Amino acid sequence: MPVTFLFLLPVFFFQMTKSVTNPEELGGLASQMTNDYGHLALQGRMAAATAEPEEIGFQIRTRVQELGHGCIFLVQKAGALQICPTDSYTKRELIECARAVTEKVSLVLSALQAGNKGTQACITAASAVSGIIADLDTTIMFATAGTLNAENNESFADHR
């Protein structure tokens, strides 16, 4: 997942709102956001297709689409502000669109995290199993070296 877009969006928000005073910068920011969203949409489609359960995939797909709509409105407001840089109403609308996009990004992130719970559980289980294997290896090493005290006269080789 292109986390670049998701985690840099607050920077875009700041730059968009800051660019209200320099509307000539908005075109480059809008272009960059459009390219980044295109990558996110592609990755989001793949994440939605592989998500379990199916409703998580639906959430990812829906939230990425809603984010796309928000980005469209944001780019439109940026264009409108470039046409009329002194319009205070358009400036306020641009700032509101940027806030809405930031909110939609957090919804996309929460959907992705919900789809990632199974993966995280597997990572946690694998880590626990690795710890148990390391403990067993250490015990075997000490038992083989004969440094563990036997409770009776049996050897480790008998139980190995």
Automatic annotation (TrEMBL):
Pfam families listed in its UniProt record: VBS
Organism for this UniProt entry: Prunella himalayana
Domain Vinculin-binding site-containing: 16-117
Superkingdom of origin: Eukaryota
Annotated GO CC locations: cytoplasm; focal adhesion; plasma membrane
Signal peptide: 1-19
Subcellular localization, as worded in the UniProt entry: Cytoplasm
Name of the protein: TLN2 protein
Main location group: cytoplasm
Keyword GTP-binding: no
GO molecular function: actin filament binding; integrin binding
UniProt cross-references to InterPro entries, sorted A to Z: Alpha-catenin/vinculin-like_sf, Vinculin-bd_dom
Keywords recorded for this protein, A-Z: Cytoplasm, Signal
Any GO BP annotation: actin cytoskeleton organization
